[in-house]
Structures are given as C-alpha cells and as structure tokens.
Amino acid sequence: MNLHTLDHEKAILDWIREGTPVSIEKALLILSGLETDTAIRAYQKKIDDIFGRFADKCDRQQFAGRSQPPPYMHRTIAQCLFDYLWNSKPKRFGESFLITEVVDAQLNPDLHCAVGTCVGLTSLYSVLGLRAGLHLTLLVTSDHLLNRLRLGQQTVDLDHTDPLGFDCPARKHSREFPLQMLAANVLNCRGLRNAANGHASAAKADYGKAIFVNPEYANAFNNRGNLRLGDQDLEGAIADYTEAIRLNPGFCEAYCNRGIAKHRLGRFEEARQDYHLAMETDAEYADARKCLQILDDMEHSRAPVK
C-alpha cells in the first residue's frame, strides 16, 4: 500500500470499505492523526517496545515469543498477553481511545496511569495480538467493545476492562465484526469527543465515516441521530434511530431516542410504544421510564375535566 496520498485517512477508509487488505495497526495510527510515515514509524517502535516486554515475559514462561506459534498455543499466548497488560498497568480503564494515547499511557512509568476506554484497550490488545499470531475479531454491543479469540471452531471472549475478563460470558445483543472494523469504533468515539467539545459538524462527519466503513454499525447511526435531534431534523433522526434498531434490535437507547423524536413531532402513541420497547429490552433503563412519565403527565394535563 502506498500511503503517500493527500489524505491518508480517506485512503485507508476507502481500502477498508472495499475489502482491500489493510494493516489495522497503521490504520489506527492514521486515525489518531499521524500524517507522515516518520510519525507512524515512531509509534510502531513504541508498539515494538510493548510487544518486546510482553515477549520477554512469556519467554521466561517458555510458551511464547515465537515468530509463528502453533495454533495449540494460541489460547495460552492470548491469556499471557491479557495477564501481562493487567499486571503491568492494573488501572487500565480510562478515557483514551486513540491508539497513540493508549500506547503512551501503557509506556508511562506511572503504574497507576489509566490506559484507555474499551475501544482503546481493545485496539492495543488487537495490534499486539496480531503480532503474536492470534486470530482476533471484535464483539460490539450498544455500549461496549470486546475481542473474540478464534481457536478453530472454539471462541474465547476478552473484556479488557475487567481483570477477570479473559473467557468472559457471552454478552447479549452483541455482533461480531472483522478486526478492520475497529476503524469504525474509533471514528464513532472521535465523533463523541467532537460532539462533547461543541464541534457538531466534525462529529457528524466522523459518524458518517464510521457508517461508511461499517454500514452495519448501529452505534454510529444512533449517535448521528442524536445530532440530528439536536438540530431539530426530527425525521432524519428517526431514520437513523430506526436503522440502529434494525441493526441491533436490543438497542434500548435507540428505542428511547426514537420515542423522543416522535414525541416532539406530536406522534404520542408511537412515542409511547417506543418507550415501552426500550423498557422491554432493558427493564433497568431509567430514561425510557422518565420519558414515559413525562408523556403521561402531559396527556393527563390535557385531558378534559369532567
């Protein structure tokens, strides 16, 4: 691949969308804002450093650090990598999601420096796991991201926000995606950061890029719908929420958000149905209960006095 283009990010996203083989490590570095091969190589050396420390640890235990480990050793290597990261930096869950931020945090000599979000931690594990020869994919839910280790017909799920997350129980309403779809998760997080900082146009562009890379990524549709809701593009918001629900029928937040948009349009009965669907999906989802109470109070106040 030739990365000497006017827009490295556009090129990498086009390749992922087209199914062209792409280095996910290089893609994540470009999505972190690195624009030159020199800057990319500098962070690849940092990743080399992290992997070297892990390989040294595994060599002492005599079951990893090989260039091509046999498949029967993959589970052991995956467990060793998982344990190494937790032991080297026990405060793992933080706010960083870009691979550059996470790599710097992992190398920070402060033992108690938080490393990253589920997206950042999954990104780091993925680039290291690929170097170890592991076959990894992604598990995506409406609010979380995990790795899945494939061992022939068997699978092992890895939750990097939990020190006991190796071989964790399967999550409801999760979807499995190829590792290249990490790009969409990063873009979605970048959109959330831009939205939180008041950069709505940049956020909308990031959500659009996430959808371009992975048209089956429900979270990006839901988040773009939230921006449209804020812009009073209620029909556009409903369209995005509906697509999020189609892709993830267990997406309680999208049901509630769609109900809010319909409520604002005066489609009260449809809004009520969506609030109930949100609560049926997750009985603990308090926002839907509050929205339903607001709708009930409003309708009671409008009822004629007998």
Task: Explain what this protein looks like in three dimensions.
This protein is α+β, with helices and mostly antiparallel strands and 306 residues long. Helices cover 59% and strands 7% of the residues. The chain is built from 13 helices and four strands. The chain has helices at 8-18, 24-31, 37-60, 74-88, 99-107, 118-131, 182-196, 200-213, 218-230, 234-247, 252-264, 268-281, 286-302; strands spanning 136-140, 145-151, 154-158, 175-177. It has a four-stranded antiparallel sheet with strand order 3-2-1-4, covered by helices on one side. The N and C termini lie far apart (75 Å). Residues 1-6 have low confidence and may be disordered.
| Secondary structural class | alpha+beta
| Nearest-integer average pLDDT | 92
Portion in beta strands:
5-15%
Rg for CA atoms: 22 Å
Order of helices and strands: HHHHHHEEEEHHHHHHH
User: Runs with pLDDT <50, length 5+?
Assistant: 1-6
Shape: globular
Main sheet properties: 4 strands, antiparallel
Helix count from the secondary structure assignment: 13
Question: Distance between the terminal alpha carbons, to the nearest Å?
Answer: 75 Å
The helix content is: 55-70%
Count of structural domains: 2
The count of β-strands is: 4
Task: Name the strands of the widest sheet in spatial order.
Answer: 3-2-1-4
Quick recap:
The chain folds into 2 domains: 175 residues, no CATH class; 86 residues, Serine Threonine Protein Phosphatase 5, Tetratricopeptide repeat. The chain is an alpha+beta fold.
